[in-house]
Amino acid sequence: MLPIIEGESLDGYISRVAAAHHFSRLAEVTSQGGAEKNNRQQAAFLDSPGVTAIAECLRIEPSTLLHHAPLMSPDGKRRKIFDIQLAADHFQFAYRRFSPSALEASPHHRALWNLRLFPFCLETWEYLEERCPHPACRRRQRWRRTLGVELCDYCGEPLTNAVAEKVPYELRQNLEYLLGVVHPAPVCRERARGRLPEALRKLDADDLIMLSCMLAAVKDPRRKHPIFSPTFCLDQARNVFVPALAETWPLLEGWPHAFEALLTERLNSSTTGQSTGTYRVAYHFLIRCRRRKLSPALRRLIEEFLSRCRNAPLSGIDGHQAAKIAGRVLYSLLIMRRKGELKSKLCLDGNRFYLLFDRHSVEQLARELKPQVTCEYLTARLGIPRYGVRDLVNRGLLTQSPVPSGRSERLAVFRDSADDLLESLAKVMPETTTDYAVPLSKLMYCLDGGPKPWGAVLAAILDGKLPAALAPGTHRLVDRIYLRSAKVIRLRMFSDRPKLDPQETSISKSDLADMLSLRVFTFSKYSNYLVGPGNHFVDIGLNQALDIAKRVISTTEIAARLQIHHITAYKLATHLGVTSEFLGLFERKSAFTLIPELDDLFCKKTYHEIDAQAILKDQQRIIHGKGKMRGKPPKLSEHEERELIRMHASGDYLIKDLANMFKVSRTTASRTIRRGGEYH
After folding, report:
1. Exposed, middle or buried by CB within 10 Å (0-12, 13-18, 19+), for 85?
2. Contact 325, 334 (CB under 8 A)
3. Most CB atoms within 10 A, among 208, 284, 525, 647?
4. For 37-166, where are the alpha helices, taking DSSP H only?
5. What is the pTM of this model?
6. In 417-573, which ranges are E strands?
């Protein structure tokens, strides 16, 4: 007599025996145990006495055959196979399912192929087939004729010729553990149960499979009631339910926290805090838990999870309370919760799951997060551009704060670090006196176009390397800083330009105005021409800003370098034919070519000192003017007066020609010539 193979199904073994003895139908063997000779002739429908009778007929040990037989329980709701009790609905005996590669390796029918929930072969990872591969036949295989387990019952076509799909690799590991719960080998069952938490190890195999089916329905509503659906077939199992079963194994391994995390993620994924699909799926899960006849152990396990959710509000707080404790906007806290930066509490109210903030997590966030100030706030207090604030952060004088979730990637610093910097600068600098007459902001105008070294200068003042004084008042900090002499511009810190990174530095219109030595309100009439419309905080590209600063020079910078009034600087540049970019803006290369004195500040050894009197000489002339000049701006600057007198002394020009050339009246030109050297 043929020996039975480990893990072989009862019908498969009897079919092999019948084929070996050339029986035409399976009923010739199963009828010895009382099986019907029409539609229910499989041995799987026999009771224990019938299986024993067949074992005696086949002359094998009855206990061996009973071990492989799916015996029905007295109430007809369960079947026991390999010492494992499962619900009767899990089995499929009407059709014969097979794996072509497995039959080619060993032509016997595996008992696991009878499980409806697992339509794949654990040995070959092929989805099971149930029809003849011959295109003229294509009949569904049944347990009637006995041509052989590896042959079609109708046409004799080898079933190994069938082509089966493979189970995806990413699903195999979880399916192996899940199928190991009902595996015939005790070693596989112990290995699978060893990965489960203590609460699930106490459940029997049927409860674990039932819980897995319920969790699969939560993953996708299409997967609910799979084993009870009359339309459940191999295609539906392959495309819908097998991926769901694979996704439920991690939920079983991490029960109940993994399932709680799944519902939390579903609820967090909705912008309104309550996903309609999640609510419907969770509602059906609760209803099935109440209406379905579950075992006492499984019902107790689910009730413990639900009780955990009902008691969660005791340690949770709502969004408004969390925003009040953390001192943050509610929207930012919601974004942090969705990203997992803040813990959530899954709560249950009747049939509705909802989320609360974890109180301990919010309180810890409130302790870690300090008050912050934006870059624009520091720009207004310090009087430096935004890239200067970034330079202070890079130098360690300011501490950058993390960007809250849901907010744009804007630079922000901790308020205490900003207050410490301002306080330290105020302590280092004494109150201004007559010895400190050079304003720092005016001195910065002398630097050529590009980023100004605000960070290096403030760091030098803080370290005591650059003596400075601070005027009292509430104006911007750099507007109240005064230096002893303008000669300090030759020091190293004034050439230490910040290195700007396009990835972390944003340049606005106001920052470009600082690069061009212009005030923001003065830059307004130029900004639309250079960078287009928009307010002062519109971001422009760093490369574009640097190109403009290298290409354009303002009359303010020309005036600061030549120690003249800005109106005089404009007239001088226009008179010498410097290429004009816009009204008040000139081409830098052309200006340095036609006005070589602009380079004297940095290139020549004969350095012209700039002091407060030289910078403001034109303004002082208004105060000390006599007669009609009192209180009025001068018609001509000192440089223009000297040039007019020199040209008249040469004898090549008439007074009217000089008046037209310098755009003044002939009276003013004559008066200037008569005064001669009054101011020189």
Report:
1. middle
2. no
3. 208
4. 48-58, 62-68, 100-105
5. 0.59
6. 438-439, 468-470, 481-483, 507-508, 539-540, 552-554
